[in-house]
Each structure stands twice: as structure tokens, then as C-alpha cells.
Design goal:
The complex is a heterodimer. Chain A has 8 helices and 15 strands. By secondary structure, chain A is an alpha/beta fold. Chain A has a single domain, classed as Aldolase class I (TIM Barrel), CATH 3.20.20. In chain A, helix 3 packs parallel to helix 4. Chain A is globular. In chain A, 57% of the residues are buried. Chain B starts with a strand and ends in a 7-residue tail after the last strand. In chain B, the strands form 3 sheets. Chain B has a 7-stranded antiparallel sheet. A 6-stranded mixed sheet of chain B has the order 10-9-8-11-12-15, sandwiched between helices. Chain B is built from 6 helices and 15 strands. The relative contact order of chain B is 0.15. The chains are: A alpha/beta, B alpha/beta. Chain B: Its cofactor is [2Fe-2S] cluster; FAD.
Chain lengths: 302, 260
């Protein structure tokens, strides 16, 4: 028997595979066995209702896509009344991704969700490139990251996962700041601020001009970030960016990830997360490895 | 809704910019409504990672074949033209909200460009229930007029207008539509493919108290309601609401359409 369990702080996941926020919903239930996921991550929630950005909100690029959804959201009360209950019959623990326009909003959201027993952990989306002007995000500043984590830490005992932005000069600084502020784990990373232009019309291919790049094209960059962050902190890492198959997931685990998020691959094949989990098992069997956790950070540098 | 593979029976060009593909879906047992769509993997997952939403042109329940009439618009649909007879295609569907037929009376369908593909499925459904169907097809050139023969063959009355013949102005289509509404007992009006014509259909539905529906299109990522890429604005009562084309649409009551 292969052991796929991994730990993210106090949370034990039955396998390392979970959705990236914003790419998953209960609509997938007919196409994907949700009970086989390591965790459930519903779309980021904001304090109040948001309409999202102008269209087109997605465009295709080589090996990926740019999105600028802008977190269309019905607000925290709707989330608690409707979204959380819609997952209550599924087995995997639920990680609530929260997004705020100020540190105070993060605090309010965390305080509100701290009272919800169905929320196993909070992922702090301090890195969405689509909320503020020109892709600015809290996670671009180590000081802001430290302050934000500290404020949220004070209002909840639930595990806190800081989702870092790749749009920084030195990600280790942000990771250390998050750790000092009280983060229990890190998601590495959100999408890359990107742009594409339609040469026929000379118009940006995203309504909001810029958006976040995801998909297979970003994977080598994310593997590098995971490796760097793993060197810099002791926190468990959730790798996120461009995982298309089990091999990709193993690569991130070897670089230092304890778990892996899957997003764009789900748009290509809705059951991608189930397939990736099977491929991880195949890898372990093929290499006579009994537990996937034994591979974390085991890149061979000799 | 499911993810499945289907074998390609034919895939050929029907005019300079349009292709038609027929799939064997005999392994699939599913109800398919006109106006619904399938989310299709068109080519290589590196060059074209995103699927393309194509609305149903014709679903033949007896032969279990599924047909799409598609405009070759970008790299995804270009890749689709390279698929050969016998190749497999991966689809998710059927997806979205389809058209609803009127209880009684005749239907008027107003199509522009590839919009006729979507309305063709509706025309067939209405004809199978012996409802009278009039179709106004608008296109750039007479060569771009699609499915005229097929629609005539199934017993729909087809009226064509083109830019080249200078018969496709909104004013011309309005007077033709009004004549049909007055003389042919039209109780419902449908449109797809043009913002200008959608606006006209919205006005006509309001003025003549007709049931009206609009089929929309959008860039999509997931196609099943998770990602919110395909947002559009609709009017519900006095409020504007942002909804998803893929799951709340692609067919909306024409009264809800917000058209600039």
C-alpha cells in the first residue's frame, strides 16, 4: 500500500492534490470524484459582493492562459449560507481562500470564518494580480505581509496558509515575513502578471489589459520558487502553477512542496486531479517508495 | 453533462470560412436541447490549452449523431479543421440553458453569420413539433449564407439578406420582420449572431408582445460555471446582474439582454 497522506500544519490530507482557488466548484461533481481530493478549495471570497472585471476575462497563450476575473463574489454571508453547506457532504477538509482590499477586511473575514466548524484552514490570497491597479498585491511587500499575517493570526486559531505572489524580486523575503507573522503554511504561488495583444486589432486580449498567467508554461518558474522558499523557511509548502500530470506534481514535491494545487489542468480535463493522484501512486509503486511524504524536498543535488 | 470521446464521421468546409463536423455519439445517451453547447478540445494542449464552446447545430436522436457548424476564427478552430474522419474528439456536454418553444403560434428566427448554426437546431426542434418557422438569415455575402437548403428542406421558410446586396440593414430586417409578425401568426422571436439584430429583436418582442430569446457567446475557460470567465450583464427587473454565459445562459430571455 502506498501512503499518499501529507501534513499541512495540523491538517492531515489523504493525498497531496487539491484545486487552486478559482478553478473549482461543486459544478465539477458529475465530472470529477471530489471525495478523492486531498482538500477542497472554493473560489476566493471577499467581504462584500464584487462584480468582477470587464470581459474578455481569459485568453489563451502558448502552454497557458491569462485570466483577469477580478474575484466575482457574492460576499461572506452568502458564502457561509450557501457555499460552505454545498460541500458538507464531501469528505475532504475545506480550505477557505479569502481575499480583502485592506488588512482589516482580511481580519474581518478570518474572524467570521473562525466560527465556522466546516472550515479546516484559511488560505490568505494576498497575491491576486487582478484586484488593484497594475497588479499590485499585499504580498509584494514583506512588511505588509508580516503585518497582515499578524493581524489575522490574532483573530483565528485555524491554520493560516499565505498564498504568495510570484511577482516579486526575492520571494524568500516574503516567505520569511509570512512565517514571522504567524503563517502555518505557504502556497507558492499565485499567477504571474502578464499581458497579451491581438496583433490584428492591436487591442489587449484581456479587458483589464493585464491578467495572471497560469498553466504548463509557468511550471519551471514555480518549481524554482518552491525550491527557494523551501530553503528559506520551515513552513510546509503547497505548490501551485502549471501542474498537468503526476510527474509535474512529483517534481514540485521533490523541490520542497508538501502538497500541490491544480488549476488550469482542470479546465483542460475536468477529472485532471483524479488522474494526477493516480499517476502519483503509479510513480511511488514504480520507485518502490511507500510514502509520498518521504519525497518532500528530496531533489538530488549530488 | 459528462466528459466523453466521440469519433469524427466527417469534417469538411462548407464555405470559405465555415466548417461542419459530424460526430458519432452512439455511446452517449443524453438529452440535448437546441441552444445548448459542448466544450471541445480542438487541438494540442500546449498550443491550445483551452477548449472551445460550440453550440449544437444538429443532434440526431435516432442516428445518435452530433453536428457542429463552426466559424474558423482563430487558432483553436483552425486546429479543429485538421481533424480527420476516424479521429477522436474530446467533449464536455451538453452544457448551458437551451431555447424554449412557444406553446402555440409560429416562430421567427433572426440569424446573422454563424448564429444560424445555433438557430438551425431550434428550427429543427420546432419543425419536429409541426410548428411553423420563418428564418431570416443575414450575412456579408450570398456565399456566406449558410444552411438555407437544409432549413428549406425541413419545412422552414427562409428569407435571406446580405450586406453585398444591401438588403441587410436593420431597417430592412425590421420591415421584413414586422410583415411576418403581422401576417404569419408569429408568437415567438429568437436571435443569435448580431448585437444590432439582437437590439431589433428586443424592440420587436416588446412592441408586439412576443416571447423572445437570445443566444449569446463568450470566451470561456471551464465552461461549467466554476471560473467566471464568461461573465455578462443582464437586467432582472430594475437590477443589473452579472451572470455566467455558460451556466445561466447561453440562451437568455431577450428582455433581460443588456445591449449597447
Amino acid at each position: 500500500m502506498t501512503d499518499l497522506t501529507v501534513k499541512i500544519s495540523s491538517l492531515t490530507l489523504k493525498n497531496p492534490i487539491m484545486p487552486a482557488s478559482g478553478t473549482f466548484g461543486s459544478e465539477l461533481a458529475p465530472l470529477l470524484d471530489i471525495n478523492r481530493l486531498g482538500a477542497i478549495v472554493p473560489k476566493s471570497i471577499t467581504l462584500s459582493e464584487r462584480g468582477g472585471n470587464q470581459t474578455p476575462r481569459v485568453c489563451e497563450t502558448d502552454g497557458g492562459m491569462i485570466n483577469s476575473i477580478g474575484i466575482q463574489s457574492k460576499g461572506i454571508e452568502h458564502y457561509i449560507a450557501n457555499i460552505l453547506p454545498s460541500y458538507q457532504d464531501f469528505e475532504p477538509p475545506l480550505i477557505a481562500s479569502i481575499s480583502g482590499e485592506s488588512i482589516e477586511e482580511f481580519e474581518n473575514l478570518a474572524e467570521r470564518l473562525d466560527r465556522e466548524p466546516s472550515v479546516a484552514a484559511l488560505e490568505l490570497n494576498i497575491s491576486c494580480p487582478n484586484l488593484r491597479d497594475h497588479g499590485q498585491a499585499f504580498g509584494m511587500s514583506a512588511d505588509t505581509t508580516y503585518q497582515l499575517l499578524g493581524k489575522v493570526r490574532a483573530v483565528t486559531t485555524k491554520p493560516l496558509i499565505a498564498k504568495l505572489t510570484p511577482n516579486v524580486t526575492r520571494i524568500q523575503d516574503i516567505a520569511e515575513a509570512a512565517e514571522r507573522g504567524g503563517a502555518d503554511a505557504l502556497t507558492v504561488a499565485n499567477t504571474f502578471l502578464a499581458m497579451a495583444i491581438d496583433t490584428e486589432s492591436r487591442k489587449p486580449r484581456i479587458g483589464n489589459v493585464m491578467g495572471g498567467l497560469s498553466g504548463a508554461a509557468v511550471k519551471p518558474l514555480i518549481v524554482r520558487f518552491i525550491y527557494q522558499v523551501h530553503q528559506a523557511t520551515n513552513l510546509p509548502i503547497i505548490g501551485s502553477g502549471g501542474v498537468m500530470n503526476g510527474q509535474d506534481a512529483i517534481e514540485m514535491i521533490l523541490a520542497g512542496a508538501s502538497a500541490v494545487q491544480v488549476g488550469t489542468a482542470t479546465f483542460i480535463q475536468p477529472n485532471a486531479m483524479n488522474t494526477i493522484t493516480d499517476e502519483i501512486t503509479d510513480y511511488l509503486v514504480r520507485h518502490h517508495i511507500s510514502a509520498v511524504k518521504d519525497l518532500i524536498g528530496q531533489v538530488n543535488l549530488d | 453533462m459528462k466528459t466523453f470521446n466521440a469519433k469524427i464521421m466527417t469534417n469538411q468546409s462548407v464555405s470559405t470560412r465555415y466548417w461542419q463536423i459530424t460526430l458519432d455519439v452512439s455511446a452517449i445517451d443524453m438529452p440535448v436541447q437546441p441552444g445548448q453547447f459542448f466544450h471541445i478540445q480542438c487541438g494540442d494542449a500546449w498550443k491550445n490549452p483551452l477548449r472551445r464552446p460550440l453550440s449544437v447545430y444538429h443532434y440526431n436522436r435516432e442516428l445518435r449523431t452530433l453536428e457542429f457548424l463552426y466559424l474558423v476564427k482563430g487558432t483553436g478552430t483552425q486546429q479543429l479543421t485538421l481533424k480527420k474522419k476516424g479521429d477522436m474528439l474530446n467533449l464536455i456536454g451538453p452544457l448551458g440553458q437551451g431555447f424554449t418553444l412557444p406553446e402555440q403560434g409560429a416562430l421567427l428566427l433572426v440569424a446573422r453569420g454563424v448564429g444560424v448554426a445555433t438557430l438551425h437546431a431550434l428550427a429543427r426542434e420546432a419543425r419536429s413539433e409541426n410548428k411553423r418557422v420563418h428564418v431570416i438569415i443575414s450575412a456579408r455575402t450570398p456565399e456566406d449564407l449558410l444552411t438555407v437548403e437544409t432549413l428549406t428542406h425541413i419545412g422552414a421558410t427562409v428569407h435571406t439578406v446580405t450586406d453585398e446586396e444591401e438588403t441587410s440593414s436593420v431597417e430592412s430586417v425590421r420591415s421584413l420582420s414586422e410583415k411576418l409578425i403581422r401576417e404569419e401568426g408569429i408568437s415567438a422571436i429568437y436571435t443569435c449572431g448580431s448585437r444590432r439584430l439582437s437590439k431589433l429583436v428586443q424592440e420587436l418582442a416588446d412592441e408586439y408582445q412576443l416571447k423572445g430569446e437570445l443566444a449569446t457567446e463568450a470566451h470561456m475557460a471551464c465552461g461549467i460555471g466554476d471560473c467566471y470567465a464568461c461573465a455578462c450583464t443582464i437586467r432582472k427587473g430594475n437590477q443589473l446582474k452579472t451572470v455566467r454565459v455558460c451556466t445561466d445562459g447561453p440562451v437568455f430571455p431577450i428582455s433581460q439582454a443588456v445591449l449597447q
